[in-house]
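pasting for ref
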Amino acid sequence: MNPLQQLYLQAIIKHQEQEKVKQEEQVSKQSQEILQQQQLLSLMSYTPNNLVEKKAWSLIDIQNRVTQYFQQQVLRKQVVTITNCIEYHLPYFLTVLANLIIHGLDKIQGEIEQISLLKTQYIAQPTRITMSSSLFQTLSLLLRSQLVSFDKGTQYLSKFLVFRDDFSDIFFNTLYQYSISSNQQVSQQLSFTQLNSMIKKMPEDVWGTFIFKMLSQQQQKLNKDQFLVQFNQYTVNMNNFFKKSNLIFDVVENSVKQTAQMHNDSIFQEYLLIMGSFKATTQDFLKKATSVYFEDQNDEIDLIEFNIRTQKIHKQMNCSLLYILPMLLQIESHMIDMIQQDRYNDNSQAKNSSNYYLKMIEKLKNKCVYNGEEECNCKKCQCIRRNRNSAKESQRKKREALDKIGPLQDAYEELQKKVKVIENENETLRQLLTEVFKHPTVSVLSPEFIEPLTKVIQDTDPVQHSSSYEC
């Protein structure tokens, strides 16, 4: 187990121990906030223009009745047909949600005047619409089940990121805000304003705020243990997203099969860059982040410091890994807007390059972000670990063989030195004999021993060669 894995396990244990205490602190803080809101509401209740005070139903009561209506439609598997009554420019998915909610208001009975007033407000300013958890989850299920008839773009919402069963909870639990009604009912509400700001990325730090709330679980500060636990969950969620079918992949795949012009290179390229960055840098990012975010084990950082350090890490690593989820939300929304507006067909003569993107996406899908780490037990990581273990075993055997060969290598080097000395002596002897044979007296006698000497030399060479081969 490597140091990072040990650190992660320690973080999980410590996080579990601190979770109960932090939950109590969060409840206390929320109670204080609610009390302040109640005090403010009591002051506002004396305003003569407060018409809502006179109504019997609170906002959450109306939302519950709208939720019940859509739940019945889901159970009966009845398609809900809606028409557009919103002139306000919104991302396509918010336009559909707004029309669904207004349609739901038309279907409930009772408190006609209050419902009519609320409907008028929503049509005039749809960004004021908010959804309770049950209403948002029911509408998400309705869209996932393809039980909404609006226009040709509605079918793509069945796999839209916000409405997916594995991400809808994440978006609601990260973006919700507490709301208090006229009868002092407190509820968690997800507003259109928050979702719209995520698409527009306005203000500039909205994505950083979103990620901080997700990692800190809506707490005011984030510590190292919580970061490790939540980042690991974030990694698992995104890894599953890229492995499974998703909206952009389906559009690319259908574009190839139908040889249609419903494709857009800039969106596909951006998706590939996001996917490639996530697959390649996640583990390196985690190692870098733990040292940059938390210089000390007991450090806690707030939202402002988190955004500053996030920009620092992204700049150093030349990636925006933490912002992958909001980036995907943005490009999916843009793509659906383009499909709905027929902008995919602007250039009918353009070459369909979707096949290239499909192959690249398939290739990246097969690459696991954990790259063989023990945290993952997929077939790809198991194969990588087997290859690593095989390579380590091969290296071990090689080292053992070298340890055994070591003494023989030393003896061989010593023998080579001796052979070199003998070769030098033989060369000296050859030169001396050559000079002797040049003398007139010796040259006359040379035939008598030149042949035996040649034989001696020939007998010597094989011995030297044999010694070298054996070593």
